[in-house]
Specification:
Layout (H helix, E strand, L loop, with lengths): L4 E14 L2 E14 L3 E5 L6 H9 L6 E6 L2 E2 L7 E4 L11 H5 L1 H5 L5 H13 L15 H14 L4 E5 L7 H17 L3 E5 L3 H7 L2 E5 L6 E6 L10 H4 L5 H18 L1
Parallel strand pairs: 3-8, 3-9, 6-7, 7-8
Antiparallel strand pairs: 1-2, 1-4, 4-5, 9-10
Length: 261
């Protein structure tokens, strides 16, 4: 993992304003993610994790503080950042191949190289032969794989993952965790995962960041070091001797906060 910063967040605060009043969701939050790092965010429900990803992705304007990607301020959506959500958001009237190419079309990437990358990703990740199928012909895991390939086809430097496995059954979830982690590490991508699943966060990440309740700030950071007999996978990580200790420590961080409110 490189020591070069890929994402830097300094003093980030954010408030939503409605006719009923204002809700502060982030307060003076600072965080750095290194190039090639896989980092996870956990915290109480509604604490602002998804808002934070929206700010990093440039989908939500920064109000106070700053967000830098590759050293440059984020002022809107950029090709450097890919976002994978809990729902796959596939268009039911488009084939698998056309769904995968959607991001390329939006970004104006219509070269033979870009199209070839989309086809190669489908082949590499087990969807060769399904190019002309429609989303309603796929399982939940296959649909989420298509959504991932659509994100990867644009070749972003940074992947933001907003609970992408939450709607899947446990077996499919483990398979996709392994695939996503493998893709990210094999391609040297930087990843920031939002999840409510502590085991998922530990098994996939180099570092787990615990946030406080709303308005969120960083409460605790855990560097994950696991003793593994072979290549690291999310399932193998769950069997590491240190795994349960990390689970207990992170849960205690959350539980202490919950007892204090």
């Amino acid at each position: 993992m490189s020591s070069t910063e890929k994402i830097r967040i300094d003093g980030l605060s954010h408030t939503y304003y409605t006719a009923r009043g204002e809700t502060a969701v982030l307060r003076d939050l600072s965080l750095a993610v290194a190039e090639g790092e896989f980092c996870s965010l956990v915290g109480p429900s509604g604490c602002g994790k998804s808002t934070l990803l929206g700010l990093i992705a440039g989908l939500t304007p920064v109000q106070d503080g700053r967000v830098l990607v590759n050293g440059a301020p984020v002022h809107g959506p950029t090709r450097e950042i890919g976002l994978l959500l809990q729902r796959d958001h596939l268009f039911e009237w488009r084939t698998v191949l056309k769904n995968v190419k959607l991001g390329l079309e939006i970004q104006g990437q219509r070269s033979a190289e870009s199209r070839g990358r989309a086809h190669q990703l489908l082949t590499t990740y087990g969807l060769a032969g399904f190019e002309q199928h429609y989303p309603d012909q796929l399982s939940g895991g296959m649909r989420q794989r298509v959504a991932l390939i659509r994100t990867l086809a644009t070749d972003p430097d940074v992947l933001l993952l907003d609970e992408p496995f939450a709607a899947l059954d446990y077996q499919t979830k483990l398979v996709l965790e392994r695939e996503v982690q493998g893709i990210i590490r094999a391609n040297g991508k930087t990843a920031l995962l939002v999840t409510h699943d502590i085991e998922e966060a530990i098994s996939m990440s180099d570092r787990v960041v615990v946030l406080t309740g709303r308005p969120a700030s960083v409460k605790q950071v855990y560097d994950i070091a696991l003793t593994l007999p072979a290549e690291r996978t999310p399932l193998g990580a769950r069997n590491a001797p240190e795994f349960r200790s990390y689970c207990n420590a992170i849960w205690d961080s959350l539980d202490i906060y919950l007892r204090d409110v």
